[in-house]
Amino acid sequence: MSVFKNVIVYRIEPAWSQTLTEAEEGLGKQRFEPCTPSQEKSAGWSEPRGEANGPLVESIDGQWLVEYMIESKTLPGSVVRRKLDERCAQIEATTGRKPGKKEKKELKEDITLELLPMAFTRNARVAVWIDQAERRLVINSANAARADEVVTSLVKSLDGFAVSLINTQIEPAAAMAEWLLTQEPPAGFTIDRECELKASDESKAVVRYAKHPLDIEEVKQHITDGKRPTRLAMTWDDRVSFELTQGMLIRKIVFLEGTGDGAAGGKKEDNFDADVAIATGELGQMVPALLDALGGEAAFSAALPDEAPKPVAAAAKPTTTTPTDAVEAEEDAPF
Questions:
Q1: For the chain, which ranges sit under pLDDT 50?
Q2: Rounded to two decimals, what is the model's pTM?
Q3: Which of 135, 156, 259, 335 is the 20 to 30 A CA-CA neighbour of 299?
């Protein structure tokens, strides 16, 4: 199961509503096009099934799946610097003067444009799930800037589309601390064998446990001494294992053995439908259960200042929307 690995969950504003055809037309205005020879980056919406000129929105069991494609070219900094040094040395040898700061900047830009056609390209695909019935948007990313880019593109592509990060009545760090202290996880969940605790004082001391029992006095003592859980590995209903973070990022999602029983067989298109149906079906149950374990959803005004998620503004003024701890580069997860 590779549809979703690290997800950020948003609440879709109630006023938004579009048909599948309208969404297809909207995303089509920003369809992905590969980089031109002199272009450093290109991004847009691509076919979730990977079939050229196929639909940009796939509806499976009523769940919409779309895919955001990013193609970028990277030039090794050492290569650009070497070329720049050579160009500067050549100018000094022929004119007797050293290029100034402004001229070096222009030379560097020229060199970059010259080398871009030979640069290696990297493609990243971001799976996006729109659950209209539950008013939920799920982005498969643990990278703050990338998730913001995807949300901004959705706001521009879909008329009236707006989302806000889900905020809970109980701060995740406080809930995780209580679960570790009492060793009483919420109903339907179990505590696994990984967590990270971080001091809130100036020391910023960090303690990490990996493949280690967490029902020990040492863990409780760390929490009593003021360390806050920033990550905790858990399992829901013996079906999905994951790691919850203090910023409400759900990481390292694994659909456990037996979850896909009855899934489709060998055909690629059948596997696509089955994978999407299983992932959205399982997460569609797990996410609400997790929100309930955190006291349910709260109004944004009730969020703590240092953890407060911000709603996405109108299309003209998109804002940062991702959790503070969503900074790790996600693994590309094609459908």
A1: 1, 262, 264, 300-320, 329-331, 333-335
A2: 0.79
A3: 156
